[in-house]
Amino acid sequence: MSHVTSIGTAEASPELRPTLGDLEAIDASPVRCLDPEAAAEMARQIEAAQADGDSLGGCSRSSPTACPSASAPTCSGTARSTPDWLTT
Asked: Three-class SS string for the chain?
C-alpha cells in the first residue's frame, strides 16, 4: 500500500501511518494523500504549477502488506522447495 507524503512544499503529517482500513480514503483522494489538509494544499500547488506551465516533484511512502515470510518455504504449483540459504 502507498500514499503520497508530499508534493511541492505541501507535506502530510509524518505521524500518519496508513493501514489497510485507510485504503478507501487514500483512493478517494485526487492526490492519494491520507491527510486531507495536506491533500488540498497539494492540489492547489499542482493547479498553480499547471497554470504556469510548470510541474512539481513529490514523495510517496509504500508499506508492504500481506507479504510472505522470507524464512518460509516457497511453493510453485504442487512442488515445495526450501531456498539453499535457509538450509545452511
From this structure: CEEEEEECCEECCCCCCCCHHHHHHHHHCCCCCCCHHHHHHHHHHHHHHHHCCCCCCEEEEECCCCCCCCCCCEEECCEEECCHHHHC
Beta bridge partners of 76: 79
Domain housing 41: 2-65
Within-domain flag for 50: yes
pLDDT in tens, the chain (88 residues): 889 999 999 999 999 889 889 999 999 999 999 999 999 999 999 999 999 999 999 999 987 776 666 555 554 444 445 555 555 4
Residue 85 falls inside a structural domain: no
What is this structure's pTM? 0.71
Please indicate, yes or no, if residue 48 is contained in any of the structural domains. Answer: yes
